[in-house]
Amino acid sequence: MLDVTGLNISFDQQDIIKDFNLKLAAGEQILIIGPSGCGKTILLHSIAGLLKPSSGAVNFAQQDIYQSADSLLKHRKETTKLIFQNNYFAKSLSVIANLELALFLSDKKLTKTSLLKALKEFGLEDKADSKISNLSSGEAQRINILRAVLCKPKLLLADEPTAHLDDNNAEKTIKLLINESKKINSSLITVTHDARIKPYFKKVITL
Amino acid sequence: MNYGYIAWANLTHRLSRNILNASLLAIGIATLIVIFSLKQTIDHKIEREATITDIAVGSKGSPLQILLSHIFHLDIANSNIDYDIVKKIKRLQGVESVSLISMGDNFERSKILGVSSNFLENADFSLLTGQSIKDEFDAIIGYNLQSKLKIGQSFETVHGLAEEGDHHDDHYKVVGILQKTDTIYDNMIFTSLESYWDVHNHGHHRHKLELTGILIKTKSPIFTYNLTDRINKKLNVQAVNIRLTLAQTMVKFAKLFNILQFFGLIFIIASLLSIILILLNRISEQKAEYALMIALGARYLNIFRQLFYENLILLSFSLISAALISFGFASYFNSLGLDVTRAMLMPATYLIIALLAINFLISVIFTLVIAKSEPSRILRHEY
Fold first, then answer.
1. In this prediction, does ipTM exceed 0.90?
2. The CATH number of the domain where A99 resides is what?
3. A132 in contact with chain B, both atoms CB, cutoff 8 A
């Protein structure tokens, strides 16, 4: 399904990612682990269609996502969704409006009842009308995951999903992420420097 | 969910700052509108007033003061002139018509002008409603005074130009309303010279009649120069060639006008720059959220649309506020006899078009900036 071949990313003639290769089957879950500053986020952004690599290709369903503007837009809109490291939200919108925004930009729609039900499943039903700034780190991270899975992408990309969480919340979050990706039959790539979540993945790549 | 909703949410999220920004924009816009309209109105007014009269005659003194008191009614006359002068002036070659004026009273700060029966005709003013002056103490009011006085209403006047002062015993009665003239006369009240004299000479003998001034129309511009010269030499009064004095005055004040225009221009440029900077700052502050929207699947066209909507809402608020501020200034200038309202339409229209164009350009440029810098770079550095 996802085939990353010979990926090189360099800034100012400095190689950040060098000859990276990855094959990922539908529904497969992998962890890419590495120290801070090794280029994990850059790699994830490149797979997400947000950063064109210096060379190499990111193929999804045997099509190079960077081949054309249309293929790139389709990749961002339909194929993949990013779970961001921090509070990457529209700050002016409420929790439920942020979820609606993600669906709107993916050309998808859910009723308010369905959204409230989804929030309830994530234990956040009372946060529907809250502003993102009023959420705790753990709550914000759960909304981050919910926003991505609601769009039902074929590929979920999680960037340091447990970086700022305590052990208890980190465990809850990673379990939630893995279970939700299974529920929607999505592949999952998680990048992190957090060794605590290593045991939850069968396939681990070290950068 | 739609882009208008997001735009509105973004604006209300930073409500106090956006209100401040919009208010700054409004002040800038209003300043531009007021400067332009004021300049246009004054230019038009000078031109208009100068066509009504060729020569103004008053008591000996400064030509500039006669210009200000007899033509623009912005000053008071030094003293009066004898009525006998009128006959001598009428006899001079080149005189087409002579209007007589006497002034020195007011009703709620609107000047009362005692005029000869041909004044309105010579000035090319016509009645909007009512009738011309026939009986003693009949009065015709300027267009702008309709809110103060109605036809049939009686009123008493105060001596001098201040609102408070010695009240005259006689009552004037409104018999007509003038059409809009776009001159100072829209804020004035007209009565016959006889009524004016009677009010002032109440209980006294009318043995020596006096006027504040005489306004002369000449048969052609060729006569104007010679006539002015002859009156000044032969008669013990001051005659002022209106066009010439205006031109000389303009030359004298040219430097001052240039300085004012220069500062006006600087202010206009500063206002425009501040408008652009406010729009750019707003976009800069939110560029990470636009990058997030790209990551979630938005097209660059969608980002442009949202930027445009957001600024459009902000600009609309500013334009409405600017209109209110401008009308506030307009009513103030109106009370001074300068009707700038109509002259505001043109700069306001140009400004709206210019602001929409600026908004369009800024939205395009910023969408290109987001596209060029790649959402990844923004997301990695901004959050």
1. no
2. 3.40.50.300
3. no
